[in-house]
Design a protein that fits this description.
ClC-type_chloride_channel, ClC, 25 helices, Chloride channel protein, 567 residues, alpha/beta, Cl-channel_core, 3-stranded mixed sheet
Length: 567
Protein backbone atom coordinates (compact mmCIF):
# COMPACT_ATOMS: atom_id res chain seq x y z
CA UNK A 1 0.00 0.00 0.00
CA UNK A 2 2.81 2.40 0.91
CA UNK A 3 4.61 1.58 -2.34
CA UNK A 4 1.44 2.40 -4.30
CA UNK A 5 1.02 5.71 -2.47
CA UNK A 6 4.62 6.57 -3.29
CA UNK A 7 3.99 5.82 -6.98
CA UNK A 8 0.71 7.77 -7.18
CA UNK A 9 2.21 11.29 -7.47
CA UNK A 10 4.37 10.12 -10.37
CA UNK A 11 1.28 8.62 -12.05
CA UNK A 12 -0.67 11.83 -11.56
CA UNK A 13 2.09 13.91 -13.16
CA UNK A 14 2.39 11.48 -16.05
CA UNK A 15 -1.32 11.60 -16.83
CA UNK A 16 -1.37 15.39 -16.72
CA UNK A 17 0.40 15.34 -20.09
CA UNK A 18 -1.73 14.96 -23.26
CA UNK A 19 0.14 11.99 -24.62
CA UNK A 20 -0.30 8.24 -24.99
CA UNK A 21 0.97 6.24 -22.03
CA UNK A 22 0.86 2.65 -20.85
CA UNK A 23 -0.58 3.79 -17.53
CA UNK A 24 -3.54 5.53 -19.19
CA UNK A 25 -4.18 2.48 -21.38
CA UNK A 26 -4.26 0.18 -18.36
CA UNK A 27 -6.54 2.53 -16.44
CA UNK A 28 -8.77 2.81 -19.52
CA UNK A 29 -9.10 -0.97 -19.61
CA UNK A 30 -9.89 -1.05 -15.88
CA UNK A 31 -12.50 1.66 -16.32
CA UNK A 32 -13.89 -0.19 -19.33
CA UNK A 33 -14.19 -3.38 -17.29
CA UNK A 34 -16.08 -1.58 -14.50
CA UNK A 35 -18.37 0.04 -17.08
CA UNK A 36 -18.97 -3.31 -18.81
CA UNK A 37 -19.87 -4.99 -15.51
CA UNK A 38 -22.42 -2.24 -14.82
CA UNK A 39 -23.97 -2.71 -18.27
CA UNK A 40 -24.06 -6.49 -17.90
CA UNK A 41 -25.81 -6.09 -14.54
CA UNK A 42 -28.19 -3.60 -16.18
CA UNK A 43 -29.03 -5.99 -19.05
CA UNK A 44 -29.42 -9.02 -16.78
CA UNK A 45 -31.82 -7.05 -14.57
CA UNK A 46 -33.97 -6.21 -17.62
CA UNK A 47 -33.95 -9.81 -18.85
CA UNK A 48 -34.78 -11.09 -15.37
CA UNK A 49 -37.62 -8.62 -14.88
CA UNK A 50 -39.09 -9.30 -18.32
CA UNK A 51 -38.83 -13.02 -17.63
CA UNK A 52 -41.73 -12.74 -15.19
CA UNK A 53 -44.24 -11.83 -17.93
CA UNK A 54 -42.61 -12.22 -21.39
CA UNK A 55 -41.96 -15.46 -23.24
CA UNK A 56 -39.07 -13.91 -25.16
CA UNK A 57 -37.08 -10.87 -24.06
CA UNK A 58 -38.43 -7.58 -25.51
CA UNK A 59 -41.27 -9.40 -27.35
CA UNK A 60 -44.39 -7.72 -25.97
CA UNK A 61 -46.64 -9.45 -28.49
CA UNK A 62 -46.20 -12.67 -26.49
CA UNK A 63 -48.46 -11.54 -23.61
CA UNK A 64 -52.17 -10.98 -23.45
CA UNK A 65 -53.34 -7.47 -24.45
CA UNK A 66 -55.32 -7.11 -21.21
CA UNK A 67 -52.04 -7.38 -19.26
CA UNK A 68 -49.80 -5.61 -21.78
CA UNK A 69 -51.39 -2.20 -21.36
CA UNK A 70 -50.83 -2.27 -17.59
CA UNK A 71 -47.05 -2.59 -17.91
CA UNK A 72 -46.19 0.97 -19.06
CA UNK A 73 -48.63 2.48 -16.55
CA UNK A 74 -46.98 0.58 -13.71
CA UNK A 75 -43.53 1.35 -15.09
CA UNK A 76 -44.28 5.09 -15.26
CA UNK A 77 -45.46 5.06 -11.64
CA UNK A 78 -42.28 3.30 -10.44
CA UNK A 79 -40.02 5.61 -12.47
CA UNK A 80 -41.78 8.62 -10.95
CA UNK A 81 -41.33 7.16 -7.46
CA UNK A 82 -37.58 6.72 -7.99
CA UNK A 83 -37.32 10.29 -9.28
CA UNK A 84 -39.22 11.50 -6.20
CA UNK A 85 -36.88 9.62 -3.84
CA UNK A 86 -33.65 10.75 -5.53
CA UNK A 87 -34.84 14.30 -6.17
CA UNK A 88 -36.28 15.81 -9.34
CA UNK A 89 -33.23 18.01 -9.89
CA UNK A 90 -31.21 14.83 -10.41
CA UNK A 91 -33.36 13.67 -13.30
CA UNK A 92 -31.25 14.95 -16.22
CA UNK A 93 -30.25 11.77 -17.98
CA UNK A 94 -29.14 10.25 -21.25
CA UNK A 95 -26.55 10.99 -23.92
CA UNK A 96 -27.19 14.78 -24.12
CA UNK A 97 -26.52 15.11 -20.38
CA UNK A 98 -23.34 13.02 -20.71
CA UNK A 99 -22.10 15.25 -23.57
CA UNK A 100 -22.74 18.27 -21.34
CA UNK A 101 -20.78 16.71 -18.45
CA UNK A 102 -17.92 15.71 -20.75
CA UNK A 103 -17.54 19.31 -21.91
CA UNK A 104 -18.12 21.12 -18.61
CA UNK A 105 -17.23 18.64 -15.84
CA UNK A 106 -14.67 16.31 -17.46
CA UNK A 107 -17.16 13.44 -17.63
CA UNK A 108 -17.72 13.20 -13.86
CA UNK A 109 -21.31 11.98 -13.44
CA UNK A 110 -23.41 12.79 -10.32
CA UNK A 111 -24.31 9.74 -8.24
CA UNK A 112 -28.04 10.45 -7.91
CA UNK A 113 -28.44 11.02 -11.63
CA UNK A 114 -26.76 7.66 -12.18
CA UNK A 115 -29.16 5.97 -9.76
CA UNK A 116 -32.06 7.47 -11.72
CA UNK A 117 -30.58 6.26 -14.97
CA UNK A 118 -29.86 2.73 -13.73
CA UNK A 119 -33.15 1.89 -12.05
CA UNK A 120 -35.28 4.11 -14.27
CA UNK A 121 -33.75 2.59 -17.39
CA UNK A 122 -34.41 -0.94 -16.13
CA UNK A 123 -38.06 -0.12 -15.44
CA UNK A 124 -38.56 1.74 -18.73
CA UNK A 125 -37.13 -1.06 -20.88
CA UNK A 126 -38.84 -3.78 -18.87
CA UNK A 127 -42.28 -2.18 -19.08
CA UNK A 128 -42.35 -1.64 -22.84
CA UNK A 129 -41.43 2.00 -23.36
CA UNK A 130 -39.91 2.66 -26.77
CA UNK A 131 -36.46 3.70 -25.54
CA UNK A 132 -33.01 2.24 -26.14
CA UNK A 133 -30.57 0.77 -23.67
CA UNK A 134 -27.65 2.77 -25.11
CA UNK A 135 -28.70 5.91 -23.19
CA UNK A 136 -28.27 4.24 -19.78
CA UNK A 137 -25.19 2.42 -21.13
CA UNK A 138 -23.45 5.70 -21.97
CA UNK A 139 -24.38 7.26 -18.62
CA UNK A 140 -23.41 4.22 -16.54
CA UNK A 141 -20.21 3.69 -18.52
CA UNK A 142 -19.09 7.28 -17.97
CA UNK A 143 -19.87 7.03 -14.26
CA UNK A 144 -18.09 3.70 -13.76
CA UNK A 145 -14.87 4.61 -15.54
CA UNK A 146 -14.61 8.18 -14.26
CA UNK A 147 -14.97 6.81 -10.72
CA UNK A 148 -11.53 5.22 -11.15
CA UNK A 149 -10.02 8.63 -11.84
CA UNK A 150 -11.87 10.26 -8.96
CA UNK A 151 -10.73 7.56 -6.53
CA UNK A 152 -7.08 8.00 -7.57
CA UNK A 153 -7.43 11.82 -7.70
CA UNK A 154 -6.09 11.85 -11.24
CA UNK A 155 -5.91 15.08 -13.26
CA UNK A 156 -9.25 16.05 -14.76
CA UNK A 157 -7.92 15.81 -18.31
CA UNK A 158 -7.26 12.09 -17.79
CA UNK A 159 -10.62 11.58 -16.01
CA UNK A 160 -12.28 12.96 -19.15
CA UNK A 161 -10.49 10.34 -21.24
CA UNK A 162 -11.47 7.62 -18.77
CA UNK A 163 -15.10 8.73 -19.06
CA UNK A 164 -14.79 8.30 -22.82
CA UNK A 165 -13.35 4.83 -22.23
CA UNK A 166 -16.32 3.94 -20.04
CA UNK A 167 -18.79 5.18 -22.67
CA UNK A 168 -17.11 3.09 -25.38
CA UNK A 169 -17.07 0.01 -23.14
CA UNK A 170 -20.71 0.61 -22.18
CA UNK A 171 -21.93 0.78 -25.79
CA UNK A 172 -19.71 -2.14 -26.78
CA UNK A 173 -21.07 -4.23 -23.89
CA UNK A 174 -24.63 -3.23 -24.79
CA UNK A 175 -24.58 -4.02 -28.52
CA UNK A 176 -21.39 -6.11 -28.97
CA UNK A 177 -20.06 -3.52 -31.44
CA UNK A 178 -16.57 -2.49 -30.26
CA UNK A 179 -15.55 -0.57 -33.39
CA UNK A 180 -18.84 1.35 -33.66
CA UNK A 181 -18.68 2.16 -29.94
CA UNK A 182 -15.21 3.62 -30.32
CA UNK A 183 -16.22 5.72 -33.36
CA UNK A 184 -19.39 6.91 -31.61
CA UNK A 185 -17.38 8.22 -28.66
CA UNK A 186 -14.96 10.11 -30.89
CA UNK A 187 -17.60 11.41 -33.33
CA UNK A 188 -20.57 12.21 -31.09
CA UNK A 189 -19.48 12.45 -27.45
CA UNK A 190 -15.89 13.73 -27.37
CA UNK A 191 -16.15 15.23 -30.89
CA UNK A 192 -12.42 14.96 -31.54
CA UNK A 193 -9.81 12.55 -32.90
CA UNK A 194 -6.55 12.56 -30.95
CA UNK A 195 -4.25 9.59 -30.77
CA UNK A 196 -3.64 9.78 -27.00
CA UNK A 197 -7.44 9.57 -26.52
CA UNK A 198 -8.10 7.10 -29.32
CA UNK A 199 -5.84 4.30 -28.02
CA UNK A 200 -7.27 3.87 -24.47
CA UNK A 201 -10.83 4.28 -25.81
CA UNK A 202 -10.12 1.48 -28.29
CA UNK A 203 -8.80 -0.82 -25.58
CA UNK A 204 -11.77 -0.11 -23.31
CA UNK A 205 -14.14 -0.92 -26.16
CA UNK A 206 -12.41 -4.26 -26.66
CA UNK A 207 -12.81 -5.03 -22.95
CA UNK A 208 -16.51 -4.18 -23.15
CA UNK A 209 -17.03 -6.49 -26.13
CA UNK A 210 -15.16 -9.38 -24.51
CA UNK A 211 -17.17 -8.99 -21.31
CA UNK A 212 -20.53 -9.04 -23.08
CA UNK A 213 -19.48 -11.98 -25.28
CA UNK A 214 -18.48 -13.91 -22.18
CA UNK A 215 -21.96 -13.42 -20.66
CA UNK A 216 -24.31 -13.18 -23.66
CA UNK A 217 -22.39 -14.95 -26.43
CA UNK A 218 -21.42 -13.73 -29.90
CA UNK A 219 -24.90 -13.24 -31.34
CA UNK A 220 -25.58 -9.98 -33.19
CA UNK A 221 -29.04 -8.48 -33.39
CA UNK A 222 -29.12 -8.15 -37.19
CA UNK A 223 -27.36 -11.42 -37.99
CA UNK A 224 -30.73 -13.02 -38.79
CA UNK A 225 -31.28 -10.59 -41.67
CA UNK A 226 -30.55 -12.05 -45.08
CA UNK A 227 -28.15 -9.52 -46.60
CA UNK A 228 -27.21 -9.94 -50.25
CA UNK A 229 -25.03 -7.98 -52.63
CA UNK A 230 -27.16 -5.43 -54.51
CA UNK A 231 -26.79 -4.97 -58.25
CA UNK A 232 -25.72 -1.62 -59.65
CA UNK A 233 -29.24 -0.90 -60.91
CA UNK A 234 -30.37 -0.57 -57.25
CA UNK A 235 -28.11 2.43 -56.67
CA UNK A 236 -30.29 5.15 -58.23
CA UNK A 237 -33.18 3.92 -56.09
CA UNK A 238 -30.92 3.92 -53.02
CA UNK A 239 -30.34 7.64 -53.57
CA UNK A 240 -34.12 8.14 -53.43
CA UNK A 241 -34.23 6.00 -50.27
CA UNK A 242 -31.51 8.16 -48.70
CA UNK A 243 -33.58 11.27 -49.43
CA UNK A 244 -36.58 9.65 -47.73
CA UNK A 245 -34.51 8.69 -44.69
CA UNK A 246 -33.20 12.25 -44.42
CA UNK A 247 -36.74 13.66 -44.62
CA UNK A 248 -38.08 11.21 -42.03
CA UNK A 249 -35.17 12.03 -39.70
CA UNK A 250 -36.02 15.74 -39.98
CA UNK A 251 -39.70 14.96 -39.28
CA UNK A 252 -38.71 12.88 -36.25
CA UNK A 253 -36.35 15.49 -34.79
CA UNK A 254 -38.77 18.35 -35.41
CA UNK A 255 -41.67 16.62 -33.69
CA UNK A 256 -39.44 15.51 -30.83
CA UNK A 257 -38.54 19.11 -30.13
CA UNK A 258 -42.16 20.17 -30.57
CA UNK A 259 -43.22 17.73 -27.85
CA UNK A 260 -40.45 18.92 -25.57
CA UNK A 261 -41.63 22.52 -25.90
CA UNK A 262 -45.33 21.68 -25.50
CA UNK A 263 -44.89 19.75 -22.26
CA UNK A 264 -41.87 21.54 -20.75
CA UNK A 265 -43.99 23.19 -18.03
CA UNK A 266 -45.76 19.98 -17.02
CA UNK A 267 -44.62 18.36 -13.74
CA UNK A 268 -42.46 15.29 -14.25
CA UNK A 269 -44.99 12.87 -12.73
CA UNK A 270 -47.69 14.15 -15.09
CA UNK A 271 -45.41 13.77 -18.11
CA UNK A 272 -44.49 10.22 -17.11
CA UNK A 273 -48.16 9.37 -16.61
CA UNK A 274 -49.01 10.66 -20.09
CA UNK A 275 -46.11 8.70 -21.61
CA UNK A 276 -47.39 5.57 -19.85
CA UNK A 277 -50.95 6.17 -21.07
CA UNK A 278 -49.86 6.68 -24.71
CA UNK A 279 -47.62 3.59 -24.59
CA UNK A 280 -50.45 1.55 -23.05
CA UNK A 281 -52.97 2.68 -25.68
CA UNK A 282 -50.73 2.19 -28.72
CA UNK A 283 -49.12 -0.96 -27.31
CA UNK A 284 -52.53 -2.53 -26.77
CA UNK A 285 -53.10 -2.56 -30.54
CA UNK A 286 -49.50 -2.58 -31.86
CA UNK A 287 -47.38 -4.70 -29.49
CA UNK A 288 -44.45 -4.92 -31.92
CA UNK A 289 -43.96 -1.16 -31.55
CA UNK A 290 -43.23 -1.54 -27.82
CA UNK A 291 -39.79 -2.01 -26.31
CA UNK A 292 -36.38 -0.93 -27.57
CA UNK A 293 -36.11 -2.24 -31.12
CA UNK A 294 -36.19 -6.03 -31.04
CA UNK A 295 -39.93 -6.45 -31.59
CA UNK A 296 -40.05 -4.22 -34.66
CA UNK A 297 -36.90 -5.74 -36.12
CA UNK A 298 -38.09 -9.31 -35.62
CA UNK A 299 -41.39 -8.60 -37.33
CA UNK A 300 -39.56 -7.00 -40.26
CA UNK A 301 -37.33 -10.07 -40.53
CA UNK A 302 -40.16 -12.58 -40.36
CA UNK A 303 -42.77 -10.73 -42.44
CA UNK A 304 -41.00 -8.48 -44.99
CA UNK A 305 -43.95 -8.54 -47.40
CA UNK A 306 -46.65 -7.54 -44.89
CA UNK A 307 -46.49 -3.89 -45.94
CA UNK A 308 -49.74 -2.80 -44.28
CA UNK A 309 -48.67 -4.20 -40.93
CA UNK A 310 -45.19 -2.74 -41.33
CA UNK A 311 -46.70 0.70 -41.95
CA UNK A 312 -48.79 0.33 -38.80
CA UNK A 313 -45.70 -0.71 -36.79
CA UNK A 314 -43.72 2.21 -38.25
CA UNK A 315 -46.43 4.64 -37.19
CA UNK A 316 -46.71 3.08 -33.73
CA UNK A 317 -42.95 3.00 -33.22
CA UNK A 318 -42.63 6.64 -34.22
CA UNK A 319 -45.41 7.76 -31.88
CA UNK A 320 -44.21 5.71 -28.91
CA UNK A 321 -40.61 6.88 -29.29
CA UNK A 322 -41.57 10.54 -29.61
CA UNK A 323 -43.77 10.45 -26.53
CA UNK A 324 -41.38 8.35 -24.44
CA UNK A 325 -38.24 10.43 -25.09
CA UNK A 326 -40.13 13.72 -25.40
CA UNK A 327 -41.85 13.27 -22.04
CA UNK A 328 -38.73 12.30 -20.12
CA UNK A 329 -38.79 8.49 -19.85
CA UNK A 330 -35.22 7.38 -18.99
CA UNK A 331 -33.62 5.64 -21.93
CA UNK A 332 -31.82 6.17 -25.20
CA UNK A 333 -32.95 7.16 -28.66
CA UNK A 334 -30.60 5.07 -30.80
CA UNK A 335 -32.36 1.73 -30.21
CA UNK A 336 -35.78 3.02 -31.36
CA UNK A 337 -34.08 4.75 -34.32
CA UNK A 338 -32.67 1.35 -35.30
CA UNK A 339 -36.17 -0.15 -35.14
CA UNK A 340 -37.73 2.70 -37.16
CA UNK A 341 -34.96 2.49 -39.75
CA UNK A 342 -35.25 -1.28 -40.16
CA UNK A 343 -39.03 -1.15 -40.61
CA UNK A 344 -38.85 1.82 -43.01
CA UNK A 345 -36.10 0.15 -45.04
CA UNK A 346 -38.12 -3.05 -45.28
CA UNK A 347 -41.13 -1.07 -46.54
CA UNK A 348 -39.02 0.67 -49.20
CA UNK A 349 -37.72 -2.72 -50.37
CA UNK A 350 -41.17 -3.43 -51.82
CA UNK A 351 -40.38 -1.37 -54.97
CA UNK A 352 -37.43 -3.50 -56.19
CA UNK A 353 -39.32 -6.59 -54.97
CA UNK A 354 -42.22 -5.76 -57.31
CA UNK A 355 -39.86 -5.12 -60.22
CA UNK A 356 -38.00 -8.44 -59.94
CA UNK A 357 -40.83 -10.36 -58.23
CA UNK A 358 -38.47 -11.31 -55.40
CA UNK A 359 -38.37 -10.08 -51.78
CA UNK A 360 -34.86 -11.36 -51.07
CA UNK A 361 -33.54 -7.78 -50.93
CA UNK A 362 -35.67 -6.90 -47.89
CA UNK A 363 -32.94 -7.70 -45.35
CA UNK A 364 -30.41 -5.51 -47.14
CA UNK A 365 -32.80 -2.57 -47.36
CA UNK A 366 -33.69 -3.01 -43.69
CA UNK A 367 -30.06 -2.56 -42.66
CA UNK A 368 -29.68 0.40 -45.01
CA UNK A 369 -32.72 2.00 -43.39
CA UNK A 370 -31.09 1.71 -40.01
CA UNK A 371 -27.87 3.27 -41.32
CA UNK A 372 -29.64 6.18 -43.03
CA UNK A 373 -31.84 7.01 -40.05
CA UNK A 374 -28.96 6.89 -37.57
CA UNK A 375 -26.74 9.10 -39.72
CA UNK A 376 -29.44 11.70 -40.38
CA UNK A 377 -30.98 11.78 -36.89
CA UNK A 378 -27.80 11.78 -34.80
CA UNK A 379 -25.43 13.38 -37.33
CA UNK A 380 -23.05 10.45 -36.90
CA UNK A 381 -22.41 9.13 -40.43
CA UNK A 382 -19.20 7.25 -39.66
CA UNK A 383 -20.61 5.64 -36.51
CA UNK A 384 -23.71 4.63 -38.51
CA UNK A 385 -21.62 2.97 -41.22
CA UNK A 386 -19.49 1.02 -38.75
CA UNK A 387 -22.52 0.07 -36.62
CA UNK A 388 -24.41 -1.54 -39.50
CA UNK A 389 -21.26 -3.29 -40.67
CA UNK A 390 -20.72 -4.84 -37.24
CA UNK A 391 -24.37 -5.58 -36.46
CA UNK A 392 -25.01 -7.14 -39.86
CA UNK A 393 -21.63 -8.92 -39.95
CA UNK A 394 -21.66 -8.71 -43.75
CA UNK A 395 -19.23 -6.72 -45.90
CA UNK A 396 -21.65 -6.56 -48.86
CA UNK A 397 -23.49 -3.76 -47.07
CA UNK A 398 -20.58 -1.29 -47.16
CA UNK A 399 -20.98 0.37 -50.58
CA UNK A 400 -24.78 0.74 -50.56
CA UNK A 401 -24.63 1.89 -46.92
CA UNK A 402 -22.12 4.60 -47.79
CA UNK A 403 -24.37 5.84 -50.59
CA UNK A 404 -27.49 5.88 -48.41
CA UNK A 405 -25.71 7.51 -45.45
CA UNK A 406 -24.24 10.33 -47.53
CA UNK A 407 -27.55 11.00 -49.28
CA UNK A 408 -29.55 10.94 -46.04
CA UNK A 409 -27.09 13.18 -44.22
CA UNK A 410 -26.77 15.76 -46.98
CA UNK A 411 -30.55 15.81 -47.46
CA UNK A 412 -31.36 16.38 -43.80
CA UNK A 413 -28.64 19.02 -43.33
CA UNK A 414 -28.86 21.05 -46.53
CA UNK A 415 -32.51 20.81 -47.50
CA UNK A 416 -34.11 20.58 -44.05
CA UNK A 417 -31.48 22.37 -41.94
CA UNK A 418 -31.74 19.54 -39.43
CA UNK A 419 -29.37 19.41 -36.45
CA UNK A 420 -28.28 16.45 -34.36
CA UNK A 421 -31.09 15.47 -32.00
CA UNK A 422 -28.58 15.46 -29.13
CA UNK A 423 -27.52 19.06 -29.76
CA UNK A 424 -31.15 20.12 -30.14
CA UNK A 425 -31.94 18.57 -26.75
CA UNK A 426 -28.94 20.29 -25.17
CA UNK A 427 -30.06 23.65 -26.53
CA UNK A 428 -33.57 23.03 -25.23
CA UNK A 429 -32.32 22.13 -21.75
CA UNK A 430 -29.92 25.11 -21.86
CA UNK A 431 -27.00 22.87 -21.00
CA UNK A 432 -23.69 24.27 -22.32
CA UNK A 433 -21.66 21.96 -24.51
CA UNK A 434 -19.45 24.33 -26.52
CA UNK A 435 -15.97 25.38 -25.43
CA UNK A 436 -13.86 28.29 -26.58
CA UNK A 437 -10.82 27.23 -28.67
CA UNK A 438 -8.52 28.14 -25.78
CA UNK A 439 -10.50 26.13 -23.20
CA UNK A 440 -10.71 23.20 -25.61
CA UNK A 441 -6.92 23.10 -25.86
CA UNK A 442 -6.18 23.77 -22.20
CA UNK A 443 -8.62 21.16 -20.86
CA UNK A 444 -6.28 18.53 -22.27
CA UNK A 445 -3.29 19.60 -20.14
CA UNK A 446 -3.22 19.09 -16.38
CA UNK A 447 -1.63 21.68 -14.10
CA UNK A 448 0.90 19.09 -12.89
CA UNK A 449 2.42 19.11 -16.37
CA UNK A 450 3.26 22.83 -16.08
CA UNK A 451 3.60 23.53 -12.34
CA UNK A 452 6.85 25.25 -11.39
CA UNK A 453 8.95 25.23 -8.20
CA UNK A 454 10.64 28.49 -9.13
CA UNK A 455 9.39 30.61 -6.23
CA UNK A 456 10.27 31.68 -2.69
CA UNK A 457 7.72 31.37 0.12
CA UNK A 458 7.82 33.70 3.14
CA UNK A 459 5.61 33.01 6.16
CA UNK A 460 4.13 36.23 7.67
CA UNK A 461 7.20 38.41 6.89
CA UNK A 462 7.51 42.10 7.69
CA UNK A 463 8.04 44.76 5.02
CA UNK A 464 11.83 44.83 5.39
CA UNK A 465 12.18 41.09 4.79
CA UNK A 466 9.98 41.32 1.71
CA UNK A 467 12.08 44.19 0.33
CA UNK A 468 15.26 42.27 0.96
CA UNK A 469 14.02 39.19 -0.92
CA UNK A 470 12.63 41.23 -3.81
CA UNK A 471 15.99 42.94 -4.20
CA UNK A 472 17.74 39.61 -4.74
CA UNK A 473 14.96 37.88 -6.72
CA UNK A 474 15.93 36.77 -10.23
CA UNK A 475 13.15 36.46 -12.86
CA UNK A 476 11.18 34.36 -13.55
CA UNK A 477 11.30 33.40 -9.87
CA UNK A 478 8.33 34.74 -7.86
CA UNK A 479 7.95 35.79 -4.22
CA UNK A 480 4.96 34.20 -2.50
CA UNK A 481 3.79 35.62 0.84
CA UNK A 482 1.77 33.61 3.33
CA UNK A 483 -0.52 35.43 5.77
CA UNK A 484 -2.39 33.45 8.42
CA UNK A 485 -5.75 34.75 9.66
CA UNK A 486 -8.09 32.74 11.91
CA UNK A 487 -6.11 29.56 11.24
CA UNK A 488 -6.60 30.06 7.50
CA UNK A 489 -3.70 30.72 5.17
CA UNK A 490 -3.93 33.38 2.49
CA UNK A 491 -1.32 33.77 -0.22
CA UNK A 492 -0.16 36.90 -2.01
CA UNK A 493 2.26 37.64 -4.82
CA UNK A 494 4.74 40.33 -3.77
CA UNK A 495 6.18 42.51 -6.52
CA UNK A 496 7.31 46.07 -7.18
CA UNK A 497 4.70 48.55 -8.36
CA UNK A 498 6.26 51.51 -10.18
CA UNK A 499 3.04 53.57 -10.05
CA UNK A 500 2.92 53.31 -6.27
CA UNK A 501 6.59 54.27 -5.86
CA UNK A 502 6.10 57.46 -7.91
CA UNK A 503 3.31 58.59 -5.56
CA UNK A 504 5.49 58.16 -2.51
CA UNK A 505 3.61 55.14 -1.18
CA UNK A 506 5.06 51.70 -0.62
CA UNK A 507 6.57 50.38 -3.81
CA UNK A 508 5.53 46.82 -2.98
CA UNK A 509 2.27 45.47 -4.33
CA UNK A 510 0.55 42.44 -2.82
CA UNK A 511 -1.73 40.60 -5.23
CA UNK A 512 -4.04 37.84 -3.89
CA UNK A 513 -3.17 34.43 -5.29
CA UNK A 514 -5.88 31.82 -5.89
CA UNK A 515 -5.17 28.16 -5.16
CA UNK A 516 -6.18 25.34 -7.51
CA UNK A 517 -6.27 21.60 -6.89
CA UNK A 518 -3.64 19.44 -8.56
CA UNK A 519 -6.50 17.73 -10.44
CA UNK A 520 -7.33 20.93 -12.34
CA UNK A 521 -6.35 21.60 -15.92
CA UNK A 522 -4.83 24.68 -17.49
CA UNK A 523 -8.34 25.78 -18.47
CA UNK A 524 -9.03 26.60 -14.81
CA UNK A 525 -5.74 28.54 -14.68
CA UNK A 526 -6.89 30.56 -17.68
CA UNK A 527 -10.17 31.28 -15.91
CA UNK A 528 -8.27 32.78 -12.98
CA UNK A 529 -5.65 34.78 -14.90
CA UNK A 530 -7.39 35.71 -18.15
CA UNK A 531 -8.89 39.04 -17.03
CA UNK A 532 -5.64 40.60 -15.76
CA UNK A 533 -3.33 38.62 -18.03
CA UNK A 534 -0.69 38.62 -15.34
CA UNK A 535 0.04 37.05 -11.98
CA UNK A 536 0.18 33.48 -10.76
CA UNK A 537 -1.90 30.72 -9.19
CA UNK A 538 -0.62 28.21 -6.68
CA UNK A 539 -1.31 24.48 -6.89
CA UNK A 540 -2.04 22.34 -3.85
CA UNK A 541 -2.40 18.59 -3.39
CA UNK A 542 -4.79 17.81 -0.55
CA UNK A 543 -4.46 20.74 1.84
CA UNK A 544 -5.25 24.16 0.28
CA UNK A 545 -2.92 25.71 2.88
CA UNK A 546 0.15 23.87 1.54
CA UNK A 547 1.36 24.99 -1.92
CA UNK A 548 2.76 22.34 -4.24
CA UNK A 549 4.01 24.85 -6.81
CA UNK A 550 2.93 27.81 -8.92
CA UNK A 551 1.91 28.52 -12.50
CA UNK A 552 2.68 31.92 -14.02
CA UNK A 553 0.74 33.77 -16.71
CA UNK A 554 3.72 33.62 -19.07
CA UNK A 555 3.75 29.81 -18.77
CA UNK A 556 0.06 29.72 -19.70
CA UNK A 557 0.64 32.11 -22.57
CA UNK A 558 3.54 30.02 -23.90
CA UNK A 559 1.39 26.89 -23.76
CA UNK A 560 -1.40 28.53 -25.75
CA UNK A 561 1.03 29.73 -28.41
CA UNK A 562 2.67 26.31 -28.61
CA UNK A 563 -0.57 24.34 -28.81
CA UNK A 564 -2.65 26.32 -31.25
CA UNK A 565 -1.46 29.91 -31.54
CA UNK A 566 -4.56 30.99 -29.63
CA UNK A 567 -3.33 34.19 -28.02
Amino acid sequence: MQRWQAYLPSLQRRLALPQTSLQLCLLGMLGGLIAALLIILFRLAIIGLQGFFLTHSDDFSSIDADIRWLLPLGGAACIGLIALITGYRHYRLGIPFVIHRIKTAYGIMPFRNTLNQFFGGILALSSGFSVGREGPSVHLGAYGASSVGRYLKLPYNSIRILAGCGIAAGISASFNTPLAAMIFVMEVVLREYRIHVFIPVMLASVVGALATQWVFGHDRELAALDIINLSVWHFPYLILCGIIFGAVAWFFNRNMMRLLHIFKKWPLLLRLALAGAVTAAVGYFIPHAMGAETGAIQFAINSPTEIHLLLVILFGKMVLTLFAIGLGVPGGIIGPIFGIGVVLGTILAIVPAIIVDNSSNAGTYAVLGMAGMMAATLHAPLAALVAVLELAANQHIILPAMLVIVTAYVTTVQFFNNKSIFLMQLDFMQLPYKLSPADDVLQKVGVLAVVSQDYHLLDNPDEAVVRQHLATLQPPSQLLIKRTLDNTSHYYLAQYDISLSLSGDSAIQYLPVKGLSQQCTMAEVLGELEDKREGIVYIYQDDPNVPLGIIRWDQLRALLIKQNNLI
